[in-house]
Amino acid sequence: MAKFNDIKGFIFDLDGVITDTARFHTQAWHQLADKVGAPWSQELEDNLKGVSRMDSLEMILNAGGLSNNYSDEEKEQLATEKNTNYLALVDQMTPDDILPGIKDFLDSLKANHYAIALASASKNGPRVLGKLELTDYFPTIVDPATLSKGKPDPEIYIKGAEALNLQPEQCIGIEDAAAGVEAINGAGETSVGIGSAKLLHEADIIFPTTKDLTLANIQKAMG
Ligand code: G6P
Ligand code: MG
């Protein structure tokens, strides 16, 4: 693992790290799965985390052996429908929906002059940050539309480090999804997983909740 003193920047996932929108994505996808008659499972739910909108739809359709039943245009329509349902939930969010400890952590990063970037696969990232009133903390956002491959490919975390003018070894990535942890590790950055140690066992550091996300705890874990 990198040394804490070499760390200069933090690259954040959004959904499930900064706020619990993972819950809203799940709700909207589950609704769509029921509509098309695809089976839902906890495993599918876990595997969708961090995965782009169209890839998520494919995974859901594949779970029901339904992928060939829809044209590309119909798939676009299904994805748009899911997104409309998802945004109806997002638009009710307020700064109270920031996960515990995140605001303090962001403030401590700013106070200590760390660079901060967002590396979310979500095309709704700026809208969600706006609802949470966190836009000013994230001057650097990797645009998921520019990616050739989504998580677990490391591209988004590599681009995050580049956007901050840092080497990957100088960055810590923070994720709640196994696909995201794999992307951080593949980029050569230090990975912090938030959530279940069983799902995130490949992370360099695992914290059960966002409350544990402090510079002191990270320093301790990096030794
Ligand atoms: C994040 C979430 C995924 C979501 C993806 C795309 O990675 O973890 O659940 O599918 O973003 O989000 P979007 O808002 O663009 O549909
Ligand atoms: Mg996430």
Mean pLDDT: 97
Determine the number of helices (DSSP H or I, runs of at least 4 residues): 9
Strand order of the largest sheet: 3-2-1-4-5-6
Gyration radius from CA atoms, angstroms: 17 Å
Task: Tell me the fraction of residues in β-strands, as a range.
Answer: 5-15%
Bound molecules: 6-O-phosphono-alpha-D-glucopyranose, magnesium ion
What's the overall geometry? globular
From the helix content, strand content and strand pairing, which structural class follows?
Answer: alpha/beta
Helix content: 40-55%
SSE order = EHHHHHEHEHEHEEH
Tally of strands: 6
Question: Would you kindly provide a written description of the structure presented here, covering whatever features stand out?
Answer:
This protein is of the alpha/beta class and 223 residues long. 44% of the residues lie in helices and 10% in strands. It has nine helices and six strands. The protein has helices at residues 21-36, 42-48, 53-63, 72-90, 102-111, 125-132, 155-163, 178-187, 215-222, and strands at residues 9-12, 115-118, 140-141, 171-175, 190-194, 205-207. Strands 3-2-1-4-5-6 form a six-stranded parallel sheet, with helices on both faces. Strand 4 (171-175), helix 8 and strand 5 (190-194) form a beta-alpha-beta unit. Helix 1 packs across helix 4 (72-90). The protein is globular, with a radius of gyration of 17 Å. The chain starts with 8 loop residues before the first strand and ends with a helix. Bound molecules: 6-O-phosphono-alpha-D-glucopyranose and magnesium ion. Magnesium ion binds next to loops.
